[in-house]
Amino acid sequence: MKFSYAMLPDYPLTDSLASIKLADELGFYACYAADEPWHKDLWLLFAAAAAQTSQIRLGPSVSAVTLREPTLIAQAAATLDELTNGRAEVVLGSGNFGVLAQYKIDWAKTKPLTRVKEAVEVVRTLLDEGTITRDGEFYSYDGLFTFARPVQERLPVKIGAMRGPKSFQAAGELSDGVHHALSYSREAYEYAVENFRIGAERAGKDHTTLDIGAWVVFAVGPDSAAAKEAARSMVGLYASAMPSEQLERNGVDPADMAPIIEAIGAGDLAKGIELTTPEITEKLSLAGTPDEVRAKIEREIAPTGVNHMICAITDAGLVKSFTGRDVEGVADVDTQLRLIHDELMPAFK
């Protein structure tokens, strides 16, 4: 089981760079960040991190192909790959529903899966060949070329999938892996992995050799209640991006989430957090002491075939930035990175 750090680059850049450097020193597989306008630009941040790290892989999880043209994703990834001497990768997705709504884009009208599948082909072609000519439904080119060339023989291109089953199957068939965000139950991951396997076998691939990542809201520390309170502050914000089918696979009734999402959508974060019960928090996050977190991974996630934990670390600073709330007793990012290294990584070797 690999462990990676998923950051929201909303901290002072010097702090983010220090955390990436620490994750590199501790042996984390990768550091990922969301490619969204809500946050600081991950490509510039990771370009700066390239010179301060030696092993950790860097890239977006995910980059939304509705907002960033896929040839520009390929260009940026190849440039980052040269800066890191072969440590870049990309995860593509259709986009955060909340972000798209702020652009006045109705995600349901974007043909999200068809668009992502086509974007994967575009990025793969430009990375591998440096030139592309095609007439597609969304992306068409006539001899477009780039001098941005990756160092890796095959820079990994993966798909971020949440809904399914076709999105998970597409990831298995067309890409180098899947990052499944915001699930925490054995049922949800069995569903994701089984459909990923179907897609991989369709392409003649062994799905167990590919990246199968669990991107989770994560808070760990010696104070269990504080960690869970930090997670509770963020659950509603993340859950607003979860389709109803995914909520149900995680044991949550979409009707119970509706008032939380409505409050957050109206800008009343305090009410949204108030309505987020400890029961919902437990179902939609990975939070608590190292022993509690390890037990949940062992019970719900590891047995399904997931081979990569992608920990979206939540601390007091992040909660304060997003919600304005002060949560006492929460371990900071660097402390949580050390706890993952000391308490979790050894249990899943």
Label this structure with key terms.
single chain, 349 residues, alpha/beta, 8-stranded parallel barrel, two-stranded antiparallel ribbon, 15 helices, 48% helix, 18% strand
Would you kindly provide a written description of the structure presented here, covering whatever features stand out?
This protein has 15 helices and eleven strands. It is an alpha/beta fold. The longest helix has 18 residues. The protein is globular. It starts with a strand and ends in a 5-residue tail after the last helix. The model has no long low-confidence stretch (mean pLDDT 95).
Give the gist of this structure.
This protein is an alpha/beta fold and 349 residues long. The chain has helices at 13-26, 42-50, 70-83, 97-102, 112-129, 166-174, 186-202, 224-239, 244-249, 254-265, 269-275, 278-283, 290-301, 316-323, 333-344; strands at residues 2-7, 30-35, 57-64, 90-93, 131-135, 140-145, 157-161, 177-181, 211-220, 286-288, 308-313. The strands form 2 sheets. Strands 1-2-3-4-7-8-9-11 form an 8-stranded parallel beta barrel, surrounded by 9 helices. A two-stranded antiparallel ribbon has the order 5-6.
The main pleated sheet reads as: 8 strands, parallel, barrel
- DSSP helix fraction: 40-55%
Uncertain residue segments: none
Q: How big is the Rg?
A: 19 Å
Structural class: alpha/beta
Kindly estimate the percentage of residues that lie in beta strands according to DSSP.
Answer: 15-25%
The side-by-side strand order for the widest beta sheet comes to: 1-2-3-4-7-8-9-11
Overall average pLDDT: 95
Q: How many strand elements?
A: 11
Cα-to-Cα separation, first versus last residue:
6 Å
Count of DSSP-assigned helices: 15
Name the overall outline. Answer: globular
Helix-strand topology string: EHEHEHEHHEEEHEHEHHHHHEHEHH
